[in-house]
Structure formats: C-alpha cells, structure tokens
Design brief:
Rossmann fold, oxidoreductase, 22% strand, 7 helices, alpha/beta, six-stranded parallel sheet
C-alpha cells in the first residue's frame, strides 16, 4: 500500500511517525512538502519537495506512483492545494482524507475581531492599534504594505521578501511557543494589537492567552473551508486508523 501525505505540518509529521512505527506490514509512505521553508523538519519515510503542477499534475502523480490513499495534512490555510487534492483524488479514483487541527475558540475575556482575509485584517488594524504583532507568516505581507502609519513585528520561520510593511522588525522563530515567551514579546515590543490566522493547535496558541491577559485586541483571519465531500479528522491517530483500516481491507466510514 502506498500512502501520499501532503504535509509540512506537525500533524503530518506525527502521522508519518505513527505509520512508520506500526506493527506488521507498514505502508509505504511518501511525504510531500511545498518547499516554502528553507530547512523543514523532515518526517520519516520518503520525501519529495515542490508542487505537482495543479490538480492534473497531482492526479498524474497519483496514477504514476500507484498511490492507494491520499492524506491532505497541509496547513489549514493551504486552500489551493486542498482543492487540487480533492479534484485529483476524484480524477485518479484515490481515497482522500483531510487531517485538520480544530479551530481556536474564543475564551472569556478575549477581544477578537474576525476577518475573512488578510486584506480585511489590514483594513481593521488602524482602528485597533499602532504597534502590531503580525503572526501570519512571511507569505501575504503585501496586504499590509500600505499601512505606513503602523509599526509591525513580523514573526516567521524564514525572512520575508518585499512587498511588506515599511515600518517592520522581523523576528525569526519557529514554534512551539511558551506563554512566558509570548508575554515577553508583547511587553518588550509594546504591542497593542495581534494579528493571527486561525491555524488552531497548541504550538502557537499561547499568544492568544498572552493577548487576553494583556487586554489586547486580536484580529483572527478565518480559515478557508475544506472542499465539499471530503472527510475530515482532527488528529493523526484518527488518520492512522483510517490507513490501517484500508491496509487490512476493512471499510472505514466515509461520511460524518
């Protein structure tokens, strides 16, 4: 059995580890990384880096490499590859499962302002603060490039490239982050508003707690939907069970 994991996330690595540690006849696993991070943490199994050339290219790859199951374990905001995966899986007649960490849920005391896009988030900022902790990564900074009246602390794994905000300091770092560390970032840089994508998960959630404690507004960019008809599970263990069921020829429910 050949499994292709569209990865690059903590959940994708954990799934690859679970499949590699399985007893008996473990499946062959290929991990696909987009190549946007210079030094990614590599999961166990075979690794390929780079795109497929859209849905048609991915469908061709699935057929050529005789893939028996496709796991979309990409970042919740990697919307294009998710829709390409759904189309490719349907074209190549390969079962598809989406692995998505649950969304964050506001707690008592949170001051959240939801936005449908980075552009909407940028329009909200001038009414909320002047010193922005921007934690949406290095992609998409062009949406904030015209906000010359604001100062930005941009945190990303790799250094961003233009266009980006004119008044900006870059903090190169990779999660998971601690609550104490996030409190210090907000204090040291005198942050008065935080911007984040609804990535979910625990690795980057402490900034939300730190913002709540400090009484700061948080602009939360909503995640794009999973394509219609694609089954979604919340954790690597559930995805591993889905693979195990198929490996041993037992039907795993496809609805719900």
């Amino acid at each position: 059995m050949h499994v292709l994991i569209l990865g690059g996330t903590t959940e994708a690595r954990r799934l690859a580890e679970l499949l590699a540690a399985g007893t008996g006849s473990a499946p062959r696993v290929t991990n696909s990384l987009a190549g946007r991070v210079a030094a990614p943490r590599l999961p166990p199994g075979e690794v390929r880096v780079g795109g497929f050339g859209g849905a048609e290219g991915l469908a061709a790859w699935l057929r050529e490499h005789e893939v028996d199951a496709l796991i979309d374990a990409t970042h919740p905001f990697a919307g294009r590859i998710s829709f390409n995966a759904a189309q490719a899986a349907a074209t190549a007649h390969v079962p598809l499962l989406a692995l998505r960490r649950p969304s964050w849920v506001p707690a008592q005391g949170d001051d959240w302002h939801e936005a449908d896009s980075l552009e909407t988030a940028a329009r909200l900022l001038p009414t909320l603060g002047r010193r922005v902790f921007l934690t949406t990564g290095r992609m998409g900074l062009a949406a904030f490039a015209d906000l010359d009246g604001l100062w930005f602390l941009v945190r990303s794994v790799d250094a961003p490239e233009p266009p980006h905000p004119p008044r900006m300091e870059v903090l190169l770092d990779r999660g998971p982050f601690t609550l104490a560390g996030e409190r210090e970032v907000l204090r040291r840089h005198r942050i008065d508003v935080v911007v984040t994508k609804d990535s979910g998960g625990a690795a980057t959630a402490p900034k939300l707690t730190a913002a709540r404690e400090a009484g700061l507004p948080v602009v939360v960019v909503r995640r794009p939907p999973v394509p219609d008809g694609v089954r979604v599970v919340a954790g690597p263990e559930q995805a591993a069970r889905w693979i195990e069921e198929r490996l041993h020829g037992r039907a795993f429910p496809t609805a719900g």
